[in-house]
Amino acid sequence: MSHDQRKHIRTSLQCKIKIIHPAVGEKIVKTRDVSDGGVFVVLDPDQIPPIGSIVTGQVQGLMDDAPILEMEVVRIEPSGIGLRFLNQENEID
User: Fold this and answer.
1) CATH code, domain carrying 22
2) Number of domains within the chain
3) Burial, 35: exposed, middle or buried (Cβ in 10 Å; 0-12, 13-18, 19+)?
């Protein structure tokens, strides 16, 4: 039996995203994968905020004015963090 409880299918996608949080400051990092529910970003272990932390993020280089999103740290791995998009229920269906 799988322990994977994800609601959304992950897609491998590497792009640059700017994240902002007191533990990391303002930093440009790379994504590893993305889904409708969140994104995994690659971070050094000493820059990882704790689970439950809220970070803001913005994709870089794909659009002139990409939206700034709030995300919650929901998973920590040695290579980075899993972030869940917040306020999705307020998005257009």
Assistant:
1) 2.40.10.220
2) 1
3) middle
Higher pLDDT, 41 or 45: 41
70 confidence band (pLDDT: 50, 70, 90)? very high
Tell whether the torsion through CA atoms of 17, 19, 23 and 26 is positive or negative.
positive
The three-class DSSP label of residue 68 is coil
- Quick check: is 1 in a domain? no
CA distances from 84 to 17, 35, 64, 81 (A): 14, 9, 23, 10
Distance CA 4, CA 48 (A): 22
How far is 65 from 68, CA to CA, in rounded Å?
9
pLDDT bin (cut points 50, 70, 90) of residue 89 is: low
